[in-house]
Amino acid sequence: MNSVIKETKIRKLFLNIMTLVSFWLFTGISSCSKDEKAMLNGDWTVEKIRVHTDSTWRFPSNSYVLTLSENKSYSIHLDINTCGGSAKFEHNQQVVFQTGACTKACCDSEFALKLMNILPTCTTYDNSDLRLQLKTNVGGQVFLIKK
Question: Which residues pair with 15 in a beta bridge?
Fold first, then answer.
């Protein structure tokens, strides 16, 4: 039993260290223009997601807010938990999300879990007006609206 507890603590420590390392790696100067970076910063509300091309659109029953900060990091508030990590938006419409850590208070909905699984697989983005579209290589998409 003690070895299980010890192993769990080691895994949590490892996740925390990896979060710090990923933040350090992605805190360099942004490739986005200043205007685009300013537009991306802030709170975005998730409108709908699709996991891959052949799946149906899923609409949230709760409000999920993705907060982007200085083209370096993100946090997302789910049903109960909050997750965060690094986020880097490039001028050529490329994006890299790296999940750092999530709180583990209890049970998030199926939608929230799918949302957290799709974010790290997003590779490109489109940003127009107050809308942000994140896309994966397999047709997955996340649509967001600026709050």
Answer: none
With tokens 């370096």, the residue in question is 72
Q: Are strands 141-146 and 73-77 parallel, antiparallel or unpaired?
A: unpaired
Locate the domains of the chain by residue range.
Answer: 2-146
For the residues 72-88, what does the mean pLDDT come to? 94
From the list 62, 107, 69, the residue with the least C-alpha distance to 86 is: 69
18 band by pLDDT with thresholds 50, 70 and 90: low
Q: Model confidence over 87-98: pLDDT tens digits?
A: 999 888 999 999
In words, the CATH class of domain 2-146 is mainly beta
Joined tokens for residue 119: 């974010």
pTM score over 0.85: no
Residue partners of 89: CB distance under 8 A and separation at least 6:
30, 31, 32, 36, 37, 40, 71, 95, 125
Max distance between CA atoms of the chain, in angstroms, equals: 54
